Amino acid sequence: MENLSVAIVGGTGNLGGALALRLGAPGVKIIIGSRDAEKAKKAVETLKSNLRAGEIVGMTNQEAVKGADFVVIAVPYEGHAQMVSALKGQLAGKIVIDTVVPLNKVKPFVPAAGSALQEAQQILGDEAPVIGALHNISAVDLGDVESPLGDVLVCGDNAEAKQKVMEIIERIGATAFDGGPASNAYVIEGLTGVLIHLNRKYKSKHGSIKITGLGGGAKH
After folding, report:
1. Which of 134, 196, 209, 219 gets the most CB atoms within 10 Å of its CB?
2. Any alpha helices (H) in the chain, and if so which ranges?
3. DSSP 155
């Protein structure tokens, strides 16, 4: 997976920026996307000082996805369907990584499609596989490349695409586990609400999940 390029749609937010720093550490090319090209470029200038390696550029969402192998959706749920719809027709041959969690005032809920992942897949149809990942990782830890990361559950119905996403997760220093088909996404997305509660209850910003008893992640 050399010369990998990842577009982060919604890359000017906390999760998008943190993920950009993590991906940059092993030398991945990062393309920050935004509806406003100038906003994307400003985000890039802010991130550059903390970028360990790799190349990072900013442009509109539509321009960002053109040159990417993987497209990460990292927008708030309120803009999720609209964003995926806006990208439809431009994602053929790419893998979409959906990190979005349906939340209403930090409380998780199940959308009509069953999950954010399934909503995206319904919109895109057969154009591109949608894989869910990175829902349960703290943006604080993700953005600090020295911080250890919790385990990552990766789900989706396309086995080949899911394996490729798991390899990216391992590349940024986390352990990836196959979390099953897209129908499991609502559980994985909903765990974020539990972690938000735990972080508030125990005055932390580092809550994550750990899978035990299986002997490893993506390589097993």
Report:
1. 134
2. 14-24, 37-48, 61-66, 80-87, 116-124, 139-143, 159-171, 185-201
3. B
Question: Could you tell me if 120 and 73 are in contact, meaning their C-beta atoms sit under 8 angstroms apart?
Answer: yes
Mean pLDDT of the region 203-220: 82
Question: Would you kindly state where each structural domain of the chain is located, as residue ranges?
Answer: 5-201
How would residue 220 be classed by pLDDT, with cut points 50, 70 and 90?
A: very low
Look up the CATH superfamily of 5-201: NAD(P)-binding Rossmann-like Domain (3.40.50.720)
Number of C-beta neighbours around residue 77 at 10 A:
17
pTM summary value: 0.94
